[in-house]
Amino acid sequence: MSQSCTAPVSLSTRLSAIDAVALADRLKALADPVRLQLVSYILDQESGEACTCELAPLVELSEPTVSHHLKKLEANGLVSKERRGMNVYYRVEPQAIGEITAALNAACC
Question: pTM of the entire structure?
């Protein structure tokens, strides 16, 4: 039987109110199953990026709907985009993900 993490997640440093709001906004942007799938897929790509044309079939949604989700992630600094002709490629911002993991210290496990 595996042991689960029962200790509360603690912050590695005390967050200011401004930093806490910024972190909460990023976590809210990620707190969607489709957005988590998109970020996971992009991170798994050897090139580190993915086109909306690849992402829409992955999550079985239309490209405009996927674009909406990606805009939410982009607005919170979690992904960046680059237009190449008719296609838009998204890349996860490692600094943003790093800041989330650094702010939350899950050393209980």
Answer: 0.78
